[in-house]
Design goal:
Strand content: 25-35%
Largest sheet: 13 strands, mixed
Shape: elongated
Structural class: alpha+beta
Number of strands: 15
Radius of gyration: 22 Å
Distance between the termini: 49 Å
Number of helices: 10
């Protein structure tokens, strides 16, 4: 088995360890238990971002939820707006000769806002300056604590955080560049023709009926994540050391028994599963425990450099959650440059208002 790990430091104190692939001799025996997830998740379809701005975690499976029907991934209503774009779609499922395809990364967050931003870093909405707010705008401190697996007392005060996450990619889909003469669904074109430059209400009506953004790309799968909470002085020392040396050059035992242990961390969050899968969560709590004399504690970094654990997780982390999504404004649908400019102006103003007021 060959393990390829690439490590690099981002600006804004981002430390990323990318597990690009783990090749196995045999083929994976994994069978997706959710291969027929909601047909609403399809590139090229549009959503009205404003309908559930701040509450998108209710309709997109991005954090664990207590649901009576746990298998959904995406249930935000979407609308077909483009004709004949299937040939532009590039879809890909995880290859069978790869045991694990995904990434394993950690991000250093100087405050709670940066932690939320880090969690939703792979979710973007064109023209939205703080895309994570589309999911977290409605979250009270108790919800933040529950979703991130930490005690609510650590959602305020002068604390710093490290987010560690292991993601297993299953399905990917991306819509290529739209042609300038892209054909629109008849009703969409009719409503667009009715938009009047300078008439705010006509744009609002169009968005209400046919949306503000279309799905450009997405990745589904599942992930494990854990948040570590530190006092600022301890956090700065750890960040400085790992930035200087690189996490891949630090002995795993040192990571587990020092920097990411109860002796350094003010609080160690629970290991959470994005989909809320209890089987995976129970496995993580049992198998990812670090034992030191009479002490034991769960630590996601126990996976670091362990091909066996990654191989087991390949079968456990199925196609159950939304890991990445990129949504573009539907302005390319406008052929008239003046109407397009007016639509963009109204959309940008609305997004600014939503970000400020929610």
């Amino acid at each position: 088995m060959v393990v390829a790990v690439a490590a690099r430091m981002w600006s804004r104190a981002l430390l990323l360890v990318l597990v690009t692939a783990l090749h196995a001799v045999g083929e994976s025996a994994h069978q997706d238990n959710n291969s027929n997830f909601d047909t609403q998740l399809k590139v090229g379809r549009s959503i009205d971002l404003f309908t559930r701005y701040g509450y998108l975690s209710l309709s997109m499976k991005v954090v664990p939820r207590n649901d009576s029907v746990p298998t959904w991934i995406f249930r935000e209503p979407t609308v077909d707006i483009f004709n004949n774009v299937d040939h532009l779609v590039r879809s890909r499922q995880a290859p069978k000769n790869v045991v694990f395809e995904g990434d394993f990364h950690m991000e250093f967050c100087d405050n709670l806002n940066q932690l939320l931003q880090a969690y939703f870093r792979d979710f973007s909405f064109e023209k939205l300056k703080r895309p994570w707010r589309a999911f977290t705008g409605s979250w009270l401190p108790e919800a933040i604590a529950r979703n991130l697996g930490i005690n609510s007392s650590f959602t305020h005060g002068d604390y710093c955080y490290v987010l560690v996450r292991l993601s297993r990619f299953r399905d990917r889909s991306e819509l290529g560049r739209l042609p300038e003469n892209v054909s629109l669904v008849e009703m969409v074109q009719k409503e667009m023709d009715g938009i009047k430059v300078g008439d705010y209400a006509s744009v609002l009506m169009f968005i209400k009926k046919f949306g503000s953004h279309y799905i450009k790309s997405y990745v589904t799968g599942n992930s494990l994540y854990q948040v570590f909470v530190y006092k600022r002085s301890v956090y700065q020392n750890i960040k400085s050391k790992l930035q200087k040396e690189g996490v891949s050059d630090v002995d795993t035992r040192e990571l587990l028994l020092s920097y990411f242990s109860p002796w350094y961390a003010e609080h160690m969050g629970k290991i959470k599963v994005s989909s809320g899968n209890k089987t995976v969560e129970n496995w993580a709590q049992s198998k990812l425990r670090v034992r030191y004399y009479i002490f034991s504690y769960p630590c996601l970094l126990k996976i670091h450099g362990d091909p066996h654990l990654l191989g087991v997780l390949n079968n456990l982390l199925g196609n159950e959650a939304l890991l990445q999504i990129k949504m573009n404004a539907i302005s390319p649908a406008f052929k008239d440059p003046v109407k397009k400019q007016w639509f963009n102006e109204v959309l940008e103003n609305m997004l600014d208002l939503w970000e400020v007021n929610l």
